[in-house]
Each structure stands twice: as C-alpha cells, then as structure tokens.
Amino acid sequence: MQNLLEELYKTDITFDKFHFRKVFLDDLSYQINGISQSGKTKLVKNYLLGLKKTSYMYIDCSDIRIDIEELNKTLSTFCNNNKIDTLVLDNYIDKIKIVNVGQLIICCEMHHKMEFLKTIKLYPLDYEEFLAYEHKYDSTALNHFFQLGGFPSQHKVNNDDRILYIQRTLKYALDKMEFDILVFCAKMMAQKLSPYSIYERLKQTRKISKDKLYKSFENLHAKGYIHLLEKANHPKATKKIYLCDTSLRLALTVDRHFGRRFENMIYLELLKSNTECYYDDGIDFYIPDNDEVILGMPFADERVLFKKMEAIEAFIFTYQIKKVTAITMNREGSVSHPFSEVEMIPFDIWAIGD
User: Fold this and answer.
1) Which of 130, 160, 203, 297 is the most exposed place for a label (fewest CB within 10 A)?
2) How much is the CA Rg of the chain, to the nearest whole Å?
3) Which residues, other chains included, contact 268 with Cβ-Cβ below 8 Å and sequence gap of 6+?
C-alpha cells in the first residue's frame, strides 16, 4: 500500500478546460455530494491545481488497487510524514477511516453524517452554467440544452454515442434494482408516482421484494437521481416525480413527450436555485414565498394562457396568487387579470434572470 500511496502522491493532476460552476471551494473541509457525472471530480481537481503540489494528495477510492484495510493502517502516517495538508477522497465509502489533516474533502453520491464537513450539493449544469460551454447565446443554445441536458461530459461525447454513454454510466453507478426503478421513473417523468405503483408494475414481470424496492427507491432519491414534489398543503398525497436531468428521459425511453421534459427542466432550475415549491391539480409549480404560480407552456399564446387562467382561478383566489408566470419556448406576452400579474416568458430569459 505504501508504494501505491507514493505513486498517487507523485501523480500530476491534468484535465481539459475547466468551466466554472456556481459553487466553489476555499480552505474549508467539504463533503461534496452529487450523482455520477455531475462534475464533483473536476471541481475538486481544479481547486487542487491552485495549491502547492506537495501539499495535497488525491485518492480515487474506487481504484481497485486499493486495499481498504491496508489504507486505513497507512494513510494517516503517510500524510503526516509527507506534511500533506489537503487530502481528497473521491468516491468515498464509509469503510475508509478519516485521518487528521488540515483540509479534508470527500466526494460521494450519498450524504455521510460528518458535522465537521461543510456540505455542497452539486447538481448537473443549470442553463446558465451550460451556456459557458456554448459558442453563442441564441436559440441554438437552448435547443442544444434540450438535446444534451446538464451532464458536463456530454459535450465531449460524439452525438451517436450519447444515449449509450448515459446508459453505461447509470448501469455502472446503480445496482440493477435502482436502474430498473429509474427506467420506470423516466417513463413517468413529471407525473404522480408512488413506490407502491412502481412495485405493482415491476412485480408483473419479475420476482421482486417490496422492501428492497422501497429501499432502492429511497436510495435513488437520497443520491439525487430522482426528485419528489409534494402537493400543496397535502404532504401525504402522491408526489410528482422528476429526473435529475432531462437527458435520462431520452436515454431510457423511446417516448420523447416534449411537454414533460420541458416541465422537468423548469423544476430543475427551481431546485438548483433552492426555491421551495409545490404542485397542485392544474398547477405545475406553486411558490408560496412569492405568492406565485409557474406554468410550463412551451408553445402557448395569449389565447391558450387565458383559457388556462380560467381553469385555475379557484386556486388563484384560494391562495391569493399575485403572479402567474407561463414559461414558454420563445413567446413573450401578458394577459389581463383582475387579481394577478400574468405574463409569458421564454425559458432562456427566465432561467438566467434574477
């Protein structure tokens, strides 16, 4: 193990151009959580390149050459002898003992209870971060975002290999049960879905444990591959399900359904901005802090929006909604309403706004 640690310590860090994210690292100790391919490793390596080479050590814990028992015996002494101030444990697992260093950074999908570490939740790219990869900021950028989604790695994958690349990535990161559940969730994107309904569907084609399925569903949610949205003032009602990235819909199903992908994209922008929101019947997203309703209406015009307003008037009155925002592909406009400000905003303008 000593020889491997020496090799890892001397290895130079190199990678392609780094595109800055909305999160950054300083001299604190961190736990960086995020799904596979969300950009955790690049974020950390970019930070390490700003440090003195001999002051840090980067270890990818998924390296099959690592004997965890031997690592636990030697790592602390190795760090002390080499005066390593910053230690990075990428793909960390809890069998690895934490050592005493000036700065510890661990990267993993699941959150570990370590109060001395500041937690960063890293999601795939939002639209504004995605634009850093684009050569020009016009309608082609938005169309590109719909095609690629938010995985940074997709920009380096050939177009004809992107679907299989995502499938391979997911199969490597998830166990079979988790993967099968995710495939079903992809088919049900932006719809109400419960673990029990998944169990009822999957048990028709295979022998399956209800307890194991529920646990796998919880793991997918905890890791961030799926997200659940509560119904307004009905926490026990069936939740709506969204995917961590819209590209999963394209990779795991043949059903494109543009409207649901569009709604999922809006949800992810709200999620990444830490906006508290809920759904209701006929309401895509209700934001109580702003007394606002957001509707995903990619191809709507004023006439369609006016009819939608009539359909949700009861909700508007009940919750005293002051603003209704219809997110479209490229249409702008407004509709007169006696109680609420109602406007249509293109997704790209809305996503990069304040």
Assistant:
1) 160
2) 23
3) 123, 124, 126, 150, 242, 244, 245, 246
Task: Taking the CA atoms of 315, 321, 323 and 327 in sequence, report the sign of the dihedral they define.
Answer: negative
What is the number of other CB atoms lying within 10 angstroms of the CB of residue 269? Answer: 18
3-state DSSP assignment of residue 215:
helix
**Residue 235 has what DSSP assignment?**
T
DSSP state of 194: -
pLDDT digits (tens, 9 = 90+) for 75-89: 999 999 999 999 999
Q: Report which of 226, 258, 220, 225 is spatially closest to residue 239, judged by C-alpha positions.
A: 226
What is each CA distance from 147 to 52, 80, 246, 298, 314, in whole angstroms? 40, 48, 9, 16, 37
Q: Does domain 2-121 have CATH number 1.10.3470?
A: no
Which amino acid makes up residue 152? P
Extract the tokens encoding 78: 């190795």
Q: Per residue in 90-144, pLDDT tens? A: 999 999 999 999 999 999 999 999 999 999 999 999 999 999 988 777 678 998 9
Residue 105, helix vs strand vs coil:
strand
Structure tokens, 124: 């795939």
pLDDT computed for residue 265 by the predictor: 97
Distance, in Å, from the CA atom of 59 to the CA atom of 106, rounded to the nearest integer, reads 10
Give 244's DSSP letter: S
pLDDT at residue 354 is higher than 70: no
Domain boundaries, the chain: 2-121, 125-269, 275-354
44 CB neighbour count, 10 Å cutoff:
23
Give the integer Cα–Cα distance in Å for 331 and 85.
53
> Distance (Å, rounded) from C-alpha 255 to C-alpha 272?
26
Report yes or no on whether pTM surpasses 0.70.
yes
Q: Which are the contacts of 41, defined by CB distance < 8 A and separation ≥ 6?
A: 90, 107
Amino acid in position 70: E
What is the CATH code for 125-269? 1.10.10.10
